[in-house]
Amino acid sequence: MSNSNDYARKLGKLMCNATEQVLWPAAASRVQQRLPGSTLACRVGSGQATYHRFDPQRKQHTITYGLRMIQAKHHPHTAEGWLSSREVHQRGYFGGQLSTLNLLAHTCCHEFAHLLQQNAGKRYRGSVHNRHFYGILDELHNNGSAHEVRQILAEHSKQSGVSLPSRPFELPDPDVQRARWRVGEAVLFAQGLQEFQGRITRVNRKTCTVAGTGQFRGRRYRVPLQMLKQANLS
Questions:
Q1: Which of 16, 37, 94, 100 is the most exposed, having the fewest neighbouring CB atoms within 10 Å of its CB?
Q2: What are phi and psi of 170, to 5 degrees?
Q3: Rounded distance, CA 136 to CA 121, Å?
Q4: What separation in angstroms does the CA of 53 have from each of 22, 23, 69, 119?
Q5: Per residue of the chain (234 residues), what is the pLDDT tens digit?
Q6: What is the full DSSP assignment across the chain?
Q7: Rounded distance, CA 222 to CA 204, Å?
Q8: Angle between helices 83-91 and 100-119 (to 10 degrees)
Q9: Where are the domains of the chain?
Q10: Domain 174-230 fold
């Protein structure tokens, strides 16, 4: 696990560098014109949470790239649950091609779009991924910024000796995934470092409803299909 975390942390630092070296310089004057003294800090978080946050007192934008998010975007079955995967696929970013390199480059753009959205006063309570946000995100892809981020990530990872897969992959077919599971089947699934166990009570379109068993008895969960594993429970 430590090796995996170290690897993901190195990629996270490369994402921070790409954001600070490509996206921020192109937008800094515009951001600071709206609010003089604005700065950007990027960091790698220890969990999966990936987000933009603004501190109005310090006038500092902070973008956090989660360690587990980076790990998740290396595999189709874990990348599937992320909005960024659906954006690349459905909106045709990078030609609609999914790969770890494309997803991480797009994640940089996604979070930076939130920075620009907040700075423009277009981020509202209950309306975050709105038309203003996607207008900004589309522009980052259309004006070449996203491709420059992708290129920098690819070049710097190679120079640093950090593997960053660019081979395309396909997301799992939900119909095929759904057909694998049956009501009453014993399953395991993980959240963070904890593993849960239970039995399926309902198979939904993209999730299964699971009733906890053992120490988790009495709890109910809605679990994405790609997170389930078969188990033999007594």
A1: 37
A2: -105, 145
A3: 13
A4: 19, 16, 17, 11
A5: 456 899 999 999 999 999 999 999 999 999 999 999 999 999 999 998 999 999 999 999 999 999 999 999 998 878 887 899 989 999 999 999 999 999 999 999 999 999 999 999 999 988 999 999 999 999 999 999 999 999 999 999 999 999 999 999 887 777 777 888 999 999 998 765 578 999 999 999 888 999 999 999 999 999 888 788 888 644
A6: -HHHHHHHHHHHHHHHHHIIIIIHHHHHHHHHHHSTT-EEEEEEESSS--EEEEETTTTEEEEEEEHHHHHHTTSHHHHTTSHHHHHHHHH-GGGG---HHHHHHHHHHHHHHHHHHHHTT--BTTBSSSHHHHHHHHHHHHTTHHHHHHHHHHHHHHHHT---------PPPHHHHHHT--TT-EEEEEETTEEEEEEEEEE-SSEEEEEE-GGGTT-EEEEEGGG-EE----
A7: 9
A8: 100
A9: 2-160, 174-230
A10: SH3 type barrels. (2.30.30)
Give me the amino acid identity at 195. E
